[in-house]
Amino acid sequence: MTIPALHAEAITKTFDGHQVLSGIDLKVMPGEVVCILGPSGSGKSTFLRCINRLSPATSGHIYLSGELFGERESAGGGAVPLEHRRLQEQRQRIGMVFQSFNLWPHRTAIENVMEGPRVVKGMKARDARSLAETLLERVGLSERMKYYPTHLSGGQQQRVAIARALAMQPELILFDEPTSALDPELVGEVLAVIQELAREHTTMVIVTHEIGFAMEVADRIVLMDKGQIVEDASPRQFVERPREERSRRFLEKVMSRHALSTAQ
Ligand SMILES: Nc1ncnc2c1ncn2[C@@H]1O[C@H](COP(=O)(O)OP(=O)(O)OP(=O)(O)O)[C@@H](O)[C@H]1O
Ligand SMILES: [Mg+2]
C-alpha cells in the first residue's frame, strides 16, 4: 500500500474560542494534485498554515510520508511539538507559495532562489547559482535573473517564488491562491508553470478560486465550508454530479461568476 505524501488527521483550529477548522481529514498521495475551493472565510488558508505548522493545529496531526510532522512522540504516549530548530529542518520538506509572493525585496531574482539552498542546506554558492539558473529558466525567467522584485511584474515575481520553493526540493508544495493578487492578463503565465509541475507529478495542494484551472490540473477537488471538507471528488464528478447540496450551491455561484467574466 502506498503511503500518502501528506496525511492531515482530524485537524482542528480554534482562535480565541472561535472554531475555524472542525476536524479536517485529508490524504494526498505522492504525485497527486489536490485543489481546495471554498468560500471566503471557510478556513482554507488556516488549513494550509496548519499543514506546515506556520500556525499549529489546536488538535490533530500531520504526517509526511507516514512520519509525524512538527511533533514527536512523547514518553507518555501522546505527541509534543518539536523544538524550533527541528521544526525548521522538517519544514524544508514542504514548499509554500503565497498570494503575495513574499520575495526578499533587497535580493535579485536569482539571489531569492539561491538563498534557501545556500543558507539552509549549506550548498556551495556555485552549485546554488547553477540550480537557481536552471529553475528560473524552467519558469521562463532566464532573462530576468538579476532583476529586483520591484522591477518584475506580479506574474514574474510569483514565478520566482515558485522557483524559490522548488529550489528546496520539497516533497510537497502548498499554494495559497497563487494568482489572486495578479492582474488578469498575468494569471495564465503562473498557472502554466503550475500546470507544468502537475504534469511532472509534483505533489501539490492548491487553494484557488480559478475553477477552470482546478478542473484541468487537479486529480481531486476538495470543497471546504465552515471549517470542514464537504466534498472530495474527481474534477469531473465535482462539476457534473457533486454529492452534496452545498457543493451544488457553490458551483452555481462560481459558474455564474465565471460566465460573467468570460462574457466581458
Ligand atoms: N490569526 C487569526 N486570528 C483570529 N482569527 C483568524 C486568524 N486567521 C484566520 N482567522 C479566522 O479564521 C477564519 C478562516 O480564515 P481563513 O483565512 O483560513 O479563510 P479562507 O478560506 O482562506 O478565506 P479567503 O478565501 O478569504 O482567503 C476567518 O473567520 C478568519 O477571520
Ligand atoms: Mg485564504
Q: Work out the strand percent.
A: 15-25%
Largest sheet: 6 strands, mixed
Distance between the termini: 49 Å
On the 0 to 100 scale, the average pLDDT is 94
Contiguous low-pLDDT stretches (5 residues minimum) are: none
Question: Your description of this structure?
Answer:
- The chain is an alpha/beta fold and 264 residues long.
- It has a domain at 103-169.
- Helix content is 39%, strand content 25%.
- The chain has a 6-stranded mixed beta sheet with strand order 8-9-10-3-11-12, with helices on both faces. A 4-stranded antiparallel beta sheet has the order 2-1-4-5, with helices on one face. Strands 6-7 form a two-stranded antiparallel ribbon.
- Strand 9 (172-176), helix 6 and strand 10 form a beta-alpha-beta unit.
- Helix 4 (125-138) crosses helix 5 (154-167) and helix 5 (154-167) packs parallel to helix 6 (184-199).
- Magnesium ion (MG) binds next to helix 1.
- Adenosine-5'-triphosphate is lined by residues 15, 20, 38, 40-46.
List keywords for this structure.
9 helices; 39% helix; single chain; binds adenosine-5'-triphosphate; six-stranded mixed β-sheet; binds magnesium ion; alpha/beta
Summarize the helices and strands and which ones pair or pack:
Blueprint: E1 6-15, E2 18-28, E3 33-37, H1 44-51, E4 59-64, E5 67-68, E6 71-73, E7 79-81, H2 84-91, E8 94-97, H3 109-120, H4 125-138, H5 154-167, E9 172-176, H6 184-199, E10 204-207, H7 211-217, E11 220-225, E12 228-233, H8 235-240, H9 245-263
Parallel strand pairs: 3-10, 3-11, 8-9, 9-10
Antiparallel strand pairs: 1-2, 1-4, 4-5, 6-7, 11-12
